[in-house]
Predict the 3D structure of the following.
Amino acid sequence: SGELYCSLPNPRNVHFESTNMRNVLHWSVPEGTGDGVLYKVKYAVYGVGKWIRKPECRNINRTWCDLSSETSDYEEQYYASVKAFLNGTCSAWVETTRFNPLTDTKIDPPMVSVSSTDKSISIILTAPEKWKRSPEEGSISLLQVYPGLQYNVSVLNKKTKKRWFFSISNNTLVVPWLEPGTAYCVSAQIHVTTPLLDSGFSKEHCIATLKDK
Amino acid sequence: SVAEIRAGFTAIKANIQSRDPIRSLSILSHPHSLHKVKSSDRCCITHHLFSFYVDKVFKHCRTEDSFVNRKISSIANSFLSLRRRLGQCHEQNNCVCGEESTEKFKQILANYEGLNVTSAAMKSLGELDILLDWMEKSH
């Protein structure tokens, strides 16, 4: 379609926001334009370079577009681009920087489950799953994506406020020699050494050791 | 170490990749992806690629930015020491080059020689994360 002379200001801050490889393109409204701006989106695989339109993000008025499906192969890298339209005029295409799903994603904290005996607590950690198209699709743990994935675990004695830190590669940890009848709070973080990626710490999971028999 | 190379590259990635306007060509990942390299060929391809970066790429990657230049030279030094270590494997014949890896590396050189040297070097430098991702995943 022959496009009009494009005098509209450009969309701003066009970038990918990614968590667990759910890759969503975001941008800001062009400066000085009120309501009514529409957008279209395209993307390209780096090294192939052919721009591909995203039909579900054609003539949209929101300022984001989910490209997770199109960028799910994390052995590839990608560019995306946005163009704005208003009252018969348009902006230029504005591109992202090169997006590498493997290194440019954020990782959620692990799931934490705890159980206790009188003198120990057992902690089981579960890494988040990679984004998937539908619930029926097979799950891929981020552990498979990042073979060097480790867990940093914090254990707090609520009574004495003493805190221990552990760094483990497997997903289970037993903390022995604890005080009976005492509350302990556990929080955990994912740490990938290379590429360097850290999740935040999970919220605290507190549990009391059983009282002495 | 690889982690040092990764950290150095991450610090200059946006700067270096912004100097490479060519989206439709990749030195390392198209048409052949490193991720399709057989495990038996990995050592040889890695050794070839380290030599490629040391002998062909880094020397053509000067910029006007002293911070970027310092990072590039520290990455280059890390490559030199890693290549030395890999060289020992090569000498002990533990790093045999099969036909497929030789073919793949020829393609990489052809991609490189398809551009003028400065563009090819800057593009190769901008693709360091492709090499590092493959190395970390497969080694």
Observations:
- The two ends of chain A are 80 Å apart (CA to CA).
